[in-house]
């Protein structure tokens, strides 16, 4: 029975099986109190049983996505002479961070069907529950634009270095305004636009040290946190007055 | 050197924040104002989310006004009774202010509310101060002009519920100080300021308090209103950033001493004109941001995670 399963599995793969072997420069990202962004190096190789059929149509795509959020996008309009937030739209699923890197421009190594199925490029990363009408499309584009300006969404075509059709590497910069959560790294291997192998791994990003402690306290024991803030303020105010009283003497 | 602020969730340069705290401290030492009206907009400019800036600022005001009030207590220039009446109004106003703040935050209009409040109040106060100090400079150059009466009787003396305020030497109704307190409390919660720049003129011109007790009394009640605001923001919004508050405090305390030194070497009228011009400049800068078309019309806020 087990032998049959194995045979089934292998027969499902294309004849020239190519697989991803992967390494990461770091398995997790710690947001310390001195955190100022981070860089992740993703490297690996394409494992083959036989010599590669053709090197030119091989595609390597690396994506890193942060935890999903529900976001509100607001548009400013001129009302009574001043610019105020007027209309808004809610986008139900938007990754807090998203980077796509590839060895060649995406449209050369990925068919649209595969792109849509695997939600690889930026446009497919963002989703709404309601069907998108033309009005909503403006807000989605604005979200992509604003977050690209903040480096939260990155399109890094030709950013993956592919050596001799076998070794690949890419560095992806994580900005300093990261939020905590489970980040996912996905590596796609394509041939003639079709995905032939996927490798998925998780990169936990979390606050550590005092930052983590105070964040948890502020959200779980807000009253104690508030009193603590006040105690520090009172102590600082009193010490300042005492210190300068001494200096004047 | 970078520091990641855990609540604001942004990374900031330590020296930049210390410097901002110091700069505002210098001003508060020079002019005897809290300086919140300058610090809050500056925090917006460097990318601190407005809700965090306002809430953290309230916490920092607790420290700076406490250190000020201790000095005034020694000099017996705090009217505790008047302070308590103002405080009762102030607490009520702060609670009201936080409710309004949270409601407008859910509508996405909190930025507008904060900015508009700044434009309106900085404009009014800056303008009044400028006119007042120019008039007083003219008066010192022309001593024959008639002086203002020390004590005026106006509509305030016709109101009921009169109370004796011995330190201020007043016998007036509690209604005006209560209303002044409510009003300043609302501003404290919405603008993240102590409200000294509103409170001081109101105490002198509306309540008729003697100038030597207004600063101490105003600081006395600001401590409690700011503490109350801090707690409300911490409990309902989780937006008080301790790290940011401590950096601002350290900078502010040192700056205040430098400011006091500079202040003693300048003439009072010159100081007031300078402050008036600065207040007006901040107001105009914020007004321009509302009037000029922004380069990006869309903004993104996270609704939930």
Give the topology, please.
The complex is a heterodimer of chains A (249) and B (305).
Chain A lengths: L1 H11 L5 E7 L4 E3 L6 E11 L9 E8 L2 E12 L2 E14 L2 E5 L3 H4 L2 H7 L3 H4 L8 H16 L3 E4 L4 E3 L3 E8 L6 E11 L2 E14 L2 H11 L1 H27 L1
Chain B lengths: L1 E4 L4 E4 H18 L4 H10 L4 H25 L5 H28 L2 H32 L20 E4 L4 E4 L1 H17 L4 H11 L4 H27 L4 H23 L3 H24 L6 E7 L1
Antiparallel strand pairs in B: 1-2, 3-4
Q: State which percent range the strand residues of chain A make up.
A: 35-45%
- Estimate nothing, just give the exact number of structural domains of chain B: 1
Tell me what portion of residues of chain B adopts beta-strand conformation: 5-15%
Alpha carbon gyration radius of chain B: 20 Å
Number of helical segments with 4 or more residues of chain A: 7
Strand segment count of chain B? 5
Count of domain modules of chain A: 2
Proportion of residues in helical segments of chain A = 25-40%
Please state the CA-atom Rg of chain A, rounded to the nearest Å. Answer: 25 Å
Mean pLDDT of chain B: 81
Spatial separation of the terminal alpha carbons of chain B: 30 Å
Largest interface: A-B, 64 and 55 residues
Tell me the series of helices and strands of chain A, N- to C-terminal: HEEEEEEEHHHHEEEEEHH
Instruction: Report on the biggest sheet of chain A.
Output: 6 strands, mixed
Shape of chain B: globular
Largest sheet entry of chain B: 2 strands, antiparallel
* CATH topology assignment of the largest domain in chain A: Immunoglobulin-like
Gross CATH architecture of the largest domain in chain A: Sandwich
Q: Tell me the number of strands of chain A.
A: 12
């Amino acid at each position: 029975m087990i032998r049959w399963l194995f045979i089934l599995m292998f027969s499902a793969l294309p004849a020239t099986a190519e697989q991803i072997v992967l390494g990461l420069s770091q398995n997790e990202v710690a947001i310390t109190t001195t955190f100022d962004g981070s860089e992740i190096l993703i490297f690996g190789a394409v494992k083959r049983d036989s010599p590669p059929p053709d090197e030119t149509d091989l595609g390597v795509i690396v994506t890193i996505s942060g935890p999903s959020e529900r976001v509100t996008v607001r548009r400013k309009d001129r009302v009574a002479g001043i610019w105020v937030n007027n209309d808004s739209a809610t986008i139900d699923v938007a990754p807090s961070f998203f980077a796509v890197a590839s060895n060649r421009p995406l449209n050369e190594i990925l068919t649209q069907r595969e792109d849509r199925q695997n939600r690889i490029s930026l446009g497919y990363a963002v989703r709404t529950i309601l069907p998108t009408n033309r009005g909503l499309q403006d807000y989605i584009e604005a979200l992509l634009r604003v977050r690209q300006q903040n480096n939260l969404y990155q399109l890094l075509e030709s950013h993956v270095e592919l050596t001799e059709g076998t070794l690949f590497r890419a560095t992806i910069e994580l900005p300093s305004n990261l939020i905590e959560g489970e980040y996912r790294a996905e590596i796609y291997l394509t041939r003639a636009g079709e995905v032939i192998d996927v490798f998925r791994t998780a990169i936990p990003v979390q606050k550590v040290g005092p930052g983590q402690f105070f964040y948890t306290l502020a959200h779980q024991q807000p009253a104690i946190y508030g009193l603590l803030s006040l105690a520090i303020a009172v102590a600082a105010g009193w010490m300042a007055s005492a210190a300068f009283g001494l200096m004047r003497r | 050197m970078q520091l990641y602020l855990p609540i604001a969730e942004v990374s900031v340069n330590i020296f930049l924040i210390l410097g901002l705290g110091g700069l505002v401290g210098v001003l508060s030492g020079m002019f005897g104002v809290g300086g919140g009206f300058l610090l809050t907009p500056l925090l917006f400019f460097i990318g601190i989310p407005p809700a965090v800036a306002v809430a953290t600022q309230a916490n920092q005001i607790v420290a700076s006004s406490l250190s000020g009030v201790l000095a005034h207590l020694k000099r017996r220039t705090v009217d505790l009774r008047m302070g308590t009446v103002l405080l009762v109004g102030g607490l009520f106003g702060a609670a009201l202010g936080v409710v309004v703040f949270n409601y407008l935050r859910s509508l996405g209009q909190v930025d507008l509310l904060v900015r508009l409040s700044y434009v309106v109040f900085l404009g009014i106060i800056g303008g009044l101060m400028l006119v007042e100090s120019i008039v007083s400079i003219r008066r010192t150059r022309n001593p024959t002009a008639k002086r203002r009466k020390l004590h005026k009787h106006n509509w305030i003396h016709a109101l009921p519920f009169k109370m004796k305020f011995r330190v201020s030497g007043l016998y007036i109704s509690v209604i005006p100080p209560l209303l002044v307190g409510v009003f300043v409390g609302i501003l404290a919660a919405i603008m993240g300021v102590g409200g000294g720049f509103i409170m001081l003129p109101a105490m002198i011109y509306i309540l008729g308090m003697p100038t030597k007790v207004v600063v101490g009394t105003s600081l006395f009640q600001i401590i409690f209103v700011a503490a109350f605001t801090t707690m409300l923001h911490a409990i309902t919004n989780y937006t008080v950033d301790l790290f940011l508050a401590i950096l601002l405090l350290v900078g502010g305390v040192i700056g205040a001493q430098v400011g006091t030194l500079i202040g003693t070497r300048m003439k009072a009228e010159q100081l007031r004109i300078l402050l008036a011009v600065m207040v007006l400049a901040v107001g105009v800068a914020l007004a321009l941001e509302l009037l000029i078309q922004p380069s990006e019309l869309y903004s993104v806020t996270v609704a939930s995670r």
